[in-house]
């Protein structure tokens, strides 16, 4: 909890100082993907994601749900389809004005709007029905966007899938998230509108 509060303070200070949004490199078994994280628009979601990055949580996880023409989801399971433990869920920030457009990252959650923890997804197409206010009145909080390597994400989206232990749309060959690390920052004003 102290680490999350410290991260929120840091991101709040960065945003108020007009500083930059963090950029992370996601190394996958299909290739690298660069992502700008919108700390200026989704500070809690970004702080949460950064804490998982710093702890190494994502290293060795897989994209466990892949639906071509929709999205690819990862960050919660290892290659044996064992769910990794997570910290407490975070508040839903879908009211931040960002849209679930092709290439954006959003927090995955259950039917409970405030249940997002470590899992995230990358939209393969514009999924406006996931924007605030969605059918459940909340939506799915966008917190970043792929800036390089969207072709890698699209390739993952086209992989053949099957059902494993009752979970549908699991790639037949595991797609690993080998690592995610903070690499740079860009001016906060570049955030999509």
UniProtKB/TrEMBL annotation:
One of its GO terms (molecular function) is peptidyl-prolyl cis-trans isomerase activity. Residues 1-19 form the signal peptide. GO terms for biological process: protein folding. InterPro entries: Cyclophilin-like_dom_sf (IPR029000), Cyclophilin-type_PPIase_CS (IPR020892), Cyclophilin-type_PPIase_dom (IPR002130), E_coli_cyclophilin_A-like (IPR044665). Keywords: Isomerase, Rotamase, Signal. PPIases accelerate the folding of proteins. It catalyzes the cis-trans isomerization of proline imidic peptide bonds in oligopeptides. It holds the Pfam family Pro_isomerase. Its EC number is 5.2.1.8. SUPFAM superfamilies: Cyclophilin-like. Belongs to the cyclophilin-type PPIase family. This is Peptidyl-prolyl cis-trans isomerase. Residues 31-182 form the PPIase cyclophilin-type domain. It catalyses: [protein]-peptidylproline (omega=180) = [protein]-peptidylproline (omega=0). The keyword Transport does not apply. It comes from Aromatoleum aromaticum (strain DSM 19018 / LMG 30748 / EbN1).
């Amino acid at each position: 909890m102290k680490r999350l509060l410290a991260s929120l303070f840091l991101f709040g200070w960065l945003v108020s100082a007009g500083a930059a949004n963090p950029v992370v490199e996601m190394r996958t078994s299909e290739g690298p993907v660069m992502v700008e994280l919108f700390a200026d628009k989704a500070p809690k979601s970004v702080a949460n994601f950064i804490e998982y990055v710093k702890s190494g949580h994502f290293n060795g996880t897989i994209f466990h749900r892949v639906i071509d023409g929709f999205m690819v989801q990862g960050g919660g399971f290892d290659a044996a389809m064992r769910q990794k433990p997570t910290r407490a869920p975070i508040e839903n920030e879908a009211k931040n004005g960002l849209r679930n457009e092709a290439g954006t990252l959003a927090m995955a959650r259950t039917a409970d709007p405030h249940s997002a923890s470590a899992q995230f997804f990358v939209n393969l197409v514009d999924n406006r029905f996931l924007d605030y206010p969605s059918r459940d009145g909340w939506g799915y909080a966008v917190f970043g966007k792929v800036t390089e390597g969207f072709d890698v994400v699209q390739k993952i989206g086209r992989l053949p899938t099957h059902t494993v232990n009752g979970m549908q749309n699991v790639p037949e060959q595991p797609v690993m998230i080998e690592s995610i690390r903070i690499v740079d920052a860009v001016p906060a004003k570049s955030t999509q509108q």
